[in-house]
Amino acid sequence: MPNRQDYDAQSSKHSEQSFFRFNRVAKVPLGVDDDDSYLDMSDETAQLKPRQQHWANKMQFVLACIGYSVGLGNVWRFPYMCYKSGGGVFLVPYCIILFICSIPLLFMELSVGQYTGRGPIGALGQLCPLFKGAGLASVVVSFLMSTYYSVIIGYSIYYFFTSFKTEMPWIDCNNRWNTPDCWVPQRKGINASAPDTSRTPSEEFFENKVLQISGGLEYPGMMRWELFACLICAWLMVYFATWKSIKSSAKVRYFTATFPFVLIIILMVRAVTLDGAAEGLRFFFRPKWSELKNANVWINAASQNFNSLGITFGSMISFASYNKYNNNILRDTVAVSAVNMITSLLVGIFAFSTLGNLALEQNTNVRDVIGDGPGMIFVVYPQAMAKMPYAQLWAVMFFFMLLCLGLNSQFAIVEVVVTSIQDGFPRWIKRHLGYHEIVVLFVCVISCLFGMPNIIQGGIYYFQLMDHYAASVTIMFLAFCQMIAIAWFYGTGRLSKNVKQMTGKAPSFYLRSCWLVLGPCLLFAIWVLSLINYHEPTYHNGRYTYPDWAYGIGWMFASFSLICIPGYAVINFLRSSGDTFWERIRNTLRPNIYECKICGEHHCEHDYPEQEQFMLAQEMATVYKPTNPHLLNLGQKCGYNAMQASPSHAEAGGPCGQ
């Protein structure tokens, strides 16, 4: 009989070994990136379990959300949409939609993403399988946005390097691309008056030099190879910042999400001191109430809300899916919403103060001083830089800031697409692409190719057409379907219970009422208004009208996402079990949330696939066979006992091992 002290030491040693072996076999992470099992696990189970990868700390998640909020959605899109919609009147529907739809919907998306641990397709597919197509539609919209958001980054790179020239080319009219309409008061004399068709140097630089704009979409022109090189650089930066998923992009955001704030505040302070700034601020804050009946104002306000907060695009669901289970959702919602509102206000003051100054110099009103196209910021902001002391330094810093903001937005968009592909097709990804880096490369290359039409000479018309139909017209319908699927069919009661399980506190009456009644009713009313009183988009304050076939292309972009909702509903209906029509409908409306077989919870480590249990039992039976007769003399039954296993037992042989 072995020495008792040695025996206890061996038992303790092998008990510890068995513990680590159990964790390796039974509790192996289900794929950090692709959420697929290392073993023969079914796709259905793999898609239901929450992901195991999390943010390294709370700050990374907050910066990801704020970085998206303070990204191009605010600095580029907000002044563009506000100016396009008539100035101050835009703020009225913007604030209404913000408090009734956007903030409650943001809280809902963060809750759903954090609870399910999945991207938009997987999350909505679990809560309400019939509306799984709404999640797919949001991914399609995000993909379409990625194709032209990268163009904004390309423009920023172009302007960034141009700012290093000894004399910045947008400050005077002495360049080969300038026309007789170019007007700079400082160079013409104080008593001179601007011509009726005057244009700023920055506007002519953007349209005649950067874009070399053609006469319309029907005149596509040649590829702008300088912009092509900038676009490639933009996608290279996006790829290398996202190829390791949130591990790499989160580190980049520590700088890209904080640096822009300082610069925006400095530029705003300078802008409000310019001559004519008061007129621009009046245009920004004083609404023309008669414009509220214009459906496009409400459509633009809704799309801007959703763009700036990242809701209905799947970004916030994807970000929240990497959260810890007990993360405080309400605090995150308030923080992101507050930062979004403050940033929009600061950027609006900065942009419209500068527009007031331009209007004074060009002897015109704020409404007509420049075109209302998507390149507005590359006309207004360079002109503001020229009024700063040490203009060249400020221009370099500003366009570097714009580059950071563009990368923030693009990180979120690419993360949505990649996460959704991995959630939807884990086995196919593992079999054909293998690594997360390859998936990101695949998405970046395809998006870059689809973005090529934006950088031809007629590309700016294509850009605006895609932005209007892909990210404005369809977004309200997607938000409506998402609210209906979660609040009505999954139920506010279930969602409130999930939130209470995670945070210890149920959502307030304000949030529940907005989910259930106010939000869907407002979105439906805007949708109906847009159908009754709809105006097709134009370019440059109505001076260019798109041909009819161009509107057909626009609605084709819109249909790419809209068709996903009824299409996926039909597919899920046909796949569902049931003998009658209503049985199938009920089955497709029933939640399909993963629950542990032991404790019944969604987030736990108890339950693992039967294949893994079988492998665990086989390995334990092979390695730890207590065949030493001494174990039988101690009154133990044949089998494995982790506390008393030792190598000598397995080698000795005996009744249990025979």
TrEMBL record:
Intrachain S-S bonds: 173-182
Domain of life from the UniProt record: Eukaryota
Keywords: Disulfide bond, Membrane, Metal-binding, Sodium, Symport, Transmembrane, Transmembrane helix, Transport
One of the Pfam families matching this protein, by short name: SNF
Transmembrane portions of the chain: 61-79, 91-112, 133-161, 225-242, 254-277, 297-322, 334-355, 393-418, 438-463, 469-489, 509-529, 549-574
GO annotation (BP), single: glial cell growth
One GO MF term attached to the UniProt entry: osmosensor activity
GO CC field: membrane
Binding site for Na(+): 67, 70, 74, 308, 340, 405, 409
Location in the cell: Membrane
Membrane topology annotation: Multi-pass membrane protein
Cited PROSITE patterns: NA_NEUROTRAN_SYMP_1, NA_NEUROTRAN_SYMP_3
Recorded family membership: Belongs to the sodium:neurotransmitter symporter (SNF) (TC 2.A.22) family.
Record-linked NCBIfam families: Na_transp
Name assigned to this protein: Transporter
Protein encoded by which gene: ine-RA
